[in-house]
Specification:
By secondary structure, this protein is α+β, with helices and mostly antiparallel strands. It has a single domain, classed as Cytochrome p450 (Orthogonal Bundle). Helices cover about 50% and strands about 10% of the residues. It contains 17 helices and twelve strands. The strands form four sheets. A five-stranded mixed β-sheet has the order 1-2-8-5-3, with helices on both faces. Strands 4-12-9 form a three-stranded antiparallel β-sheet. A hairpin with a 6-residue loop joins strand 1 and strand 2. Helix 7 packs antiparallel against helix 11 and helix 8 packs antiparallel against helix 9. Bound molecules: protoporphyrin IX containing FE.
Amino acid sequence: MHDRPPGPPPRKAGLHSLPYYVRFAMDPLGFVGERFAQYGNIYYAPSGATGLFVLRDPEHLRQVLATDAASYSKAHSSSARIEQVIGHGLLTLDGDDWKRHRRMIQPAFNRAALRSYAETMVHETERLVARWPTDQRIDVAAEMTELTLQIVGRTLFSHDAGSASTDISSAMRTFNATMGQPDLLPKWMPSPMRSRLKRAVGRLDKIVYDLIDARAAGRSRGDDLLQSLVDAVDGEGDGGKLTRREVHDELVTLFLAGHETTSNALAWTLYLLARNPEALAKLEAEVARVVGDRSPTMDDLEAMPWLDQVLRESMRLYPPAFAVARRAEVDTTIGEFAVPAGSEIILWIYWAHRDPRWFPEPEVFRPERFEPALVAKLPKMAYLPFGGGPRACIGAQFSLMEARLVLAVLVQHCRLDLVRPGQTVRSRTGVTLTPRGGLPMIVRTRTRAQRAA
Ligand code: HEM
């Protein structure tokens, strides 16, 4: 057994490291990709107090996320910053607390609950597309963020939110903007970014607590996720309910985790479709055949396999959650390598998805890769946009349904062209993988006759 995977030599502290930080900050994806090319599918970076294991091999990912999941926690170095905003919700909790919350929240994502959200998803998209100006430029990335915020807001808070939804949106935008920036100052030092974040957290807390209190006091009711959380009872455990603070933390978590990711999946898919006219034409034909001129429903989705394949291929190339992190809680192993307790692990979903062993010509957009017979041949965890094992995304079905319904409505009503044919858009690694500088596109409205053709 080797002690440690190969990797770059330790660097002296101080200014010697600066060029590496600069290179990493300028192009994190390229930097990590070069290291995988140099050292293989697992490498060790002697950074921080504990060192970093960097992975992309499906077998290694499976060990950390699934077979050996109990040896790892979410208590890695970046979680303190996330907790500042979302508190202790599903994304950051560990151990028995996490198990209890997951058990209580899961029913809000069952099939019957999803069915009740479908109409809202379609309705909000139809409202959005009706407002778009024909033959004019819009920022599709910003529009998709607004849309998914509205959808998550309405399915979580329904009409209770009222005017608060604008405040919630603006608080969420502040989180996204600030959490995507490095914060290298000492903990005690105030900064404009920290003050902005604090104000946004304060505003959001007030809104969310007011909503919870109204529901808990029976002043309002809704058929939504907030109601499920307020009503959720831990049947398998102590029969207790979630506390006010716990409901708060879960709402904020679900709100945050539930909109940025899906909005990026949508923006990247629209970008890729605009660059691949044949795939788009096939999708338009599928939607016209299955849905025609009426509003799409959850039941239509099964009859649209190409729509599903297009979305999956888009999330292969641009996985919104491009990497996930863990900390080893005990001495353990990954493959033939020893992993001491306290080590941090980064699992690069982005680079797993671009492994030519499973995805030949990995840079090419090819939805055919996701035909069921080919998917069956993929190793476990070669494709994992929603993570894997017990901590896999609770909202995976929610977002797969949402993204497909939104795309179906958009394809029915308009065609989105790139501003310049063949234009390329670079990605930016913030909280999620976003189109750098937004995604300007031109709206071409489709007439009823074009839709029927
Ligand atoms: C395209 C859309 C989405 C992507 C790519 C995505 C991706 C992921 C990934 C990779 C994880 C695992 C994180 C880890 O292992 O550390 C995760 C967890 C999670 N996601 Fe998503 N997600 C999406 C949509 C959603 C939605 C719509 C919701 C809620 C409405 C949601 C809520 C969560 C929560 C609460 C967790 C933590 C689950 C747990 O640890 O028990 N996600 N997501």
